[in-house]
Amino acid sequence: MASNDVTRLATVTPMGVIGHEWTTASPGRAAFIEGGRFFLDKPGEWFLDRAAGVLHYIPLSSEDPSTAVVVAPLLTRLVAIVGEKRNPVRNLRFMGIRFENADFPLPAFGYSEIQAAHYQPATTAPAHVQSVAVECDWAEGCRFEGCRFAHLNGSGIGLGPGCRKNAIVGCTIEDIGGNGVMIGWRGTGKLSASGGLDADWADPADAPASNEVVNCHIRRCAADSRGGVGIWTAFSTDTRIAHNLVHDLPYTGISVGFRWNSDPTSQARCVVEYNHIYDVMKQLADGGGIYTLGFQPGTTLRGNRIHDVLRSEYAHGGAANNGFFVDEGSKGFLFVSNLVYRTSGGAVRFNQCNREWHTWTDNVFQDGQPAMLEVAHAASLEPERLTIEAWVQLSEFPRGKDTRRWIAGKNGNEWIEGHYALIIDGKRVGAYLNIGGGQANAFAALGDKEVLKAGRRQHLAMTFDGAVLKAYCDGVLAASLAVNRKRVPGNGPFAVGRRPDGFLPIEGATIGDVRLYNRALSPEEMSVRIRGGDAPTGCVGTWLGRRKPQGTGAVVEVEAGLEPAFRARMTPHVDDLPVTNAAGKED
Prior knowledge:
It is built from 2 helices and 49 strands. By secondary structure, the chain is mostly beta strands. Strand 41 and strand 42 form a beta hairpin. The protein has 2 domains: 79-368; 380-570, Jelly Rolls (Sandwich), CATH 2.60.120.200. The strands form 8 sheets. The chain has a 15-stranded mixed sheet, with helices on one face. A 9-stranded parallel sheet has the order 3-10-14-17-20-23-26-29-32, with no helix packed on it.
């Protein structure tokens, strides 16, 4: 007891190093302790008494110790493909090989992980990276196909300096101590003078180029180093990570880039597309399905399906977990046709970077309950006269001081030049139009009757014919306001399910068959649509709409908030489902 009667708790890190404050044992944080024989109390647990040379093990009920096979890994590296800068190893092919059981002994100075299987003896010391069981340096055109990487205490497979046009295809990667795959592994090769955690190659020509990880099943990585990830790529160019199933991880699924600012590095033109990532962030905080760092010009994140990004009760402090965590310095990305839902935090989070540094097209982001689709600006989405129509079903009505919610609209908020929107306000239907910018040029047509019904699927629309702004519910005029001024176009995104600037997302709503026209539809034309008739002429955009899949007579309705419908709309493997583009035409 101290003299001021405040209890003081001394913590000791048996790993032998203090390290970064966020990864160090401290009062109030959960800790996982192992390595003592006295912890042995459940079947399946073991303890190795190294001094006595005795392994203590409590067998599972299904096991017979007299016949059980026990594997004690000795090697830290199972295979090394090491060429030379001017004489690389070329065109090796591994098919159906099992790379299993490798060790990662703790370094003499201890182990203090920073992130993604990188560690250092102290915060000011040079960084290290875990060993990989299969190491490739100066390898070109090599291929690992249908292989299994499992029970590896360090990281799985690493493509290091000089690796070009190599492929990891159709492999199973599971039960890995650190990262599953590392493209840009820096365990060998000459780095820049800093030698720090985010040091680039001293010679830019050493950066791995045109490598790919495709159609792999990656799970249960970071089994020992909890900050490890399924796939890590950095300090490489033209990497492609596509059609992989990544799940069951304590931290992030896929990590892209490794520089904590917007200074240029060799990392560029990475394509991360059509991956299915779920059940991640099971233990740690401050990560996501896909995590990015640093300036990476030409990088594309396309068609990824990310969901069930969790939040552990043991994750002390740290920010929420997200579908995309766009971290420090991230810049120059294209986000297109990604689907994110069921995340503990927002679908997307930015830290020391901002949304405007990137391009966004046709993404569906669901932040908790609200659903959102965003479409990038296009000239076709700025008609002088217009109609927005949508089918909407509300399970609940907006609550709070401000009960306005945006069904669909474009260009920031109602005070922004060119803003137009179909909205609801409580149980009423309305429309916004800004014809030139500023509050004085914002017009609102808001119905005075409560026409919305909970649980009922209703057709809502707004129109502007160049003179009058109108709002409709089920084909019946709900509000009308004379504007008599020509609208001035804007240049912001079109959004469904929230205001285009991100304010007031809608909750408890199913939104489907959203269409934009370059003219004002008549009530008669709306009645045809309500009865199931074809869309009238002038449609310039269709989103979350009813489409007939080729070769079938079934109608698939894709609506915000319904996960199976999202899957039909967004999952790239559903090849027979036509998807409309911003021009309303089938791709």
